[in-house]
Amino acid sequence: MALPTTPRIQKARPHISQNENLIFENSRPGSRAYHLPPSDVPEVAPSALVPSHLLRQDDLSELPELTEPEVVRHYTRLSTWNYGTDTGMFPLGSCTMKYNPKINEWAARLPGFARSHPLAPEATVRGNLLLMKQLEEALCEITGLAAVSLQPTAGAHGELTGMMMIRAALTARGDARRYVLIPDAAHGTNPASAVMCGYKVITLISRKNGLLDLAALDKAMTDEVAGLMITNPNTLGLFEEDIAKACELIHARGGFVYMDGANMNALVGIARPGDMGVDVMHLNLHKTFSTPHGGGGPGCGPVAVNRELEPYLPCPTLRRVDDQTVVFDNDRPHSIGRVKAYYGNFGMMVRALAYIRAMGAEGLRAATETAVLNANYIKHHLQDDYEVPFDGPVLHEVVFNDRRQQAYGVRNGDIAKRLIDYGFHPPTMSFPLVAPGAIMVEPTESESRAELDLFIASMRAIAQECRENPEVVKTAPHLARLRRLDETAAARQPVLRWRPSPAVKAAGA
Ligand SMILES: Cc1ncc(COP(=O)(O)O)c(C=O)c1O
User: Fold this and answer.
1) What are the boundaries of the region Disordered (predicted)?
2) What mean pLDDT is reported for the chain?
């Protein structure tokens, strides 16, 4: 099939107008966005209700005074400056920015779920406990492991929890091992979590094909080593094909295997880490199971363990009494304790179970197959223009690099900026570190073939621009609201508040 020849660039961002910044600047004293009915209670001085030292002293005249349509337009316009999975393809490798189905949101907003209080007596939230248990059971089935804790609130939090359980199990044996082995193609949070847990990290250099080097593992695995932490599929989108042998080797020398399961989008319904010999792993509900990433907001990184590590799970655990009844179990003498206030981010659990139930076993498997097919489709169509540093069949994501474009003075960051002009969120840049100049694309299963073709056509058009007119790429974006930002200042000193211009201040004075 022919790819579209007209990338989206001509249609990009038609709604941008010159005066869109100015709504708050239109402040006029006396404008109101609300009308309250006359008060029917006696007026009371604020200091009679709130201690005077807590009363606000500053002058509020700098705040804009606007009508309701102006306020609504301001915020609606701001929302259109954002880019999300509801806007278009979001190929941010490793992050699995798949579409978040709206049925999940409906379920999470049902009043019985949304309004339940974390301190509500157990007997009044039986339905919620049952839902959590059902999710745990589904995740056990998906991972092939024996038990799950839903408490951790992020992938990295799950990693720390898992490593703490390994440590507790070794301590119970009287074994104070000090090192953890981590391949260089593992996610960066893996060494960070091991260190947070008090271990020293030994990095295993991967083979030329980007996969775990069993001989290096064999050499490094001593009775000082607590175990292996391995991301599978790894950050190159490659399946660690020696995972079962690695587990055998580690177990034979008294260690444990932690698998970073954040990339389960490539395995769900096809292969189970528990069956490969993995002892403990985490899942990112905010990746694989379609819950929102939340801009740093609530996430959920459940941790799954085998029978040997089950006693160490965070407490309380959930115990099923019968078909309909689930209770908290606090009688867990070997538990590592709580890792989160209350029981984790419940709303994420509702969304994930809604997704799992809506998809069913067949649907989950189909999603995995489509995610892998989409990544390979992109690899196939872009490998003539962009170098693939670690070749071989990829799973859910594909890593290119910018080596060919460097000949024209263009770097991966320039390509990312130019892609914004074409209406796409950029892929992940310069990660993983084992692939210098990386451009890491994860299309996910959410995208149609038409959208994938548009992305491919855009990337090819950019490769052509690099050859024929590199300046246009090096100075991109040209059509975005903002041009190139000082990325360090944007990250370190973000401007997150509107501040009045001198004109507004003068009007208020
Ligand atoms: C492979 C992998 N492991 C771990 C993490 C960490 O997850 P989180 O950001 O939820 O802490 C990520 C995040 O994207 C990841 O891609």
Assistant:
1) 1-20
2) 92
